[in-house]
Amino acid sequence: MSEYDAKRIEAKWQARWSEAGVFRVAAPDAGRPRFYDLEMLPYPSGRIHMGHVRNYSIGDAIARFRRMRGEQVLHVIGWDAFGLPAENAAIQNGAEPRAWTLANIETMRGQLERLGVGYDWGREIATCLPEYYRWNQWLFLRMLERGVAFRARRLLNWCASCATVLANEQVVAGRCWRCDNPVTRREFEQWFLRITQYAQELLDGIDTLDGWPDRVRAMQRNWIGRSDGARVRFALEGGSEPIEVFTTRIDTIHGATYLALALEHPAARTLAEGTGQADAVRSFIAEQAGRSLVDRFADTAEKLGVFTGRYAINPFSGERIPIWVANFVLMDVGTGAIMSVPAHDERDFAFAQAYGLPVRAVVQPRDGGAAALPFTEDGMVDGVPSAEARRRMVAEAEAKGFGEATVTYRLKDWGVSRQRFWGTPIPVIHCPKDGVVPVPDEDLPVLLPERAPLTGAGGSPLALVPEFVDTTCPRCHGPAARETDTMDTFVDSSWYYFRYCDPDNERLPFDWDKAAPWFPVDLYIGGIEHATMHLIYTRFWTKVMRDLGLVKIDEPVTSLFTQGMVIKDGAKMSKSKGNVVDPDQMIARFGADTTRLFSLFAAPPERDLEWSDAGIEGCARFLGRLWRTFEKARRGLPPVHAPKPAGTAASDLRRKTHQTIRRITDDLGPRMHLNTPVAAIMELLNALTPLVTDEPADGAAAWALREAFETIAKVLAPFAPHVAEELWEALGHPPFVAVAPWPVADPALLVSDEALVVVQVNGKVRGKITLPAGSAERDVLDAARADERIAAHLDGKTIRKTVFVQDRLLNVVAG
After folding, report:
1. Is the pLDDT of residue 485 over 90?
2. N or C: which end of the chain has fewer CB within 10 A?
3. How far does CA 228 lie from the centroid of its chain?
4. Distances from the Cα of 400 to the Cαs of 223, 403, 788, 807, in angstroms?
5. Which residues are bridge partners to 153 per DSSP?
6. Contact, 157 vs 504, CB < 8 A?
7. What are the two backbone dihedrals, phi and then psi, of residue 698, each rounded to the nearest 5 degrees?
8. pTM of structure
9. Is 549 exposed, middle or buried (0-12, 13-18, 19+ CB in 10 A)?
10. What dihedral do alpha carbons 332, 334, 335, 338 form, nearest 10°?
């Protein structure tokens, strides 16, 4: 076969891998090291895109490398199959969500198989199937028993476009994370998971995640958002309940010139009664409540408010200060009421300027100089450093009974109720007599009906399915109604990779004895966009399962890798931008190996990859050249396992081969430099090509060529596995290179007889010279002077200093 036929050979090896079960994983073997290699659960949207190709190619390259290193590798895939897109597709196209989703899974599974990703397909899961979501329900009931799951009426985020409630984590800059439409606030009775119970443990655990990117850890710290401060109660002039505020800057309290309440604060309306301001307050609250979070809380949003007509008393100074209702105060941050100190807070300052409220500075810079207002840093308060002032003032508040030290978190309880059809039914029953009653375990799963009226008009579609809603109370056996909200789909992805370890268990979500050998996950690959949603939720879920006795670990993932996006024409690939590259078209034109190779070679995996037609064509040319070079050389290669002949012929090629082995082995380790190994393979092909002539090589040269081609077959296998298998077989080896031992570099061949020394003059590279390895500085300087290009920059100058790194660098400072 003089030309590499990608289509035929890729189909051949995919079939043979499947028939032989090369990637199937049996029960863990205690005698072998294990490696759990995991990519984030994909949503079955219909077709994979180049972002998927990159993600799964990274994971597969590492899995194949680890497998060849002798490790038992668990590499599995499944489908995050519930969710809004399926429901919206049903509304738009008249398709049933289940049929639409399962058809998409079938399509995407075929695409991944054609890409040659080595998954254990026998462990595949789909979260929309009852055998999976049954355990969502079972876990929810266990949380309900422990008080982790609870029902409450709260002010929540509402996306009118998606017609559903959103968790705080699903609101990005005041917009829905999925549809990017503005989000408003509404009051609902909903189901929550008490993630705040684990806030401090989640925060402390970040310090143990050494294998996670610093950026992700910082995002999680900021999102959990611990604030150490004080609760202070401001008495109301004229009696009634005091207004309680939370502040991290009690040292500024003497500068408080007004209190500001959230629109939703219980006192916001009642305070104004009888003051002449009641109508103005009601009108302001109604007008502002209808505005989106973007309009209210963006940095550029106008700070608006209304005076209630009432006053509070500053507990430290006894000063009378006005109480306002303001649009920039959030009810679910702190207490929903703030003491406003315009001189030391930018937002408070802007509001005070707008409404002519006093601005009083009480914190001075440490150097005693004047500061422009607002001055927001720590400084000196009456000659005492701010930190010490805070400590003294909290102690005074506690001693006098109007305040105390406290801690708050930005993290709020996770609202998991969704007013949609295509999700896990929440397994509770509402009984007129017994209230909320859990569905008994033996009645799980609570099945989704085959269909429901899907209009997108709001409200749960399940409420419109009488055969689903109408049921019998398990306690009193009287008529009752099922819960009609479904669970947030982030529930599905919070624990799925435990199920991979025991996917057929009908007694429990999984057996820890089967899962324990694989945990924590060794490598988790996915996008940075999941840092404050999925990656917080899954850490929380693991801790809950630990407390339920299901697992014996605190953190689920040892090492996290966040890959860059695929960019085309300066923007992330998306259908809306019209810049999508279809992987199927690339595979049909160039082959899966070329498509994979380009996605790994074109950029370091942690950085964005700029799509390039010329780049993928270059990868195709490389594979074609590799095959043609091998075909030309193969008839002169010695047989498999031929003894190495005596002599030093082709020693340079052997050295290059073993240097390549070392380089790629290092790069595929914890550093995960996946683009540089491909470059190293290309360099090795360049090095062996001069030995491939019309006359077959013989003796030591032929043996070195065989060694080089065998090495290429092995080290190329993680990146372009099909051509690697074909090379391996053509070299006379039995299948499969996928499980062949990874090559080991010979230390004696890593030492070069020559060194390439870079010569700089005054810090600028002026040339490179090849010299015997270990050459002394004087010899290198003499060689540099003899080099015409370098000498031109030294003529007429005095050498004042040299910096010499043996075998690498000579920097000459001349003037």
Report:
1. yes
2. C
3. 28
4. 34, 8, 86, 74
5. 189
6. no
7. -140, 170
8. 0.87
9. exposed
10. -110
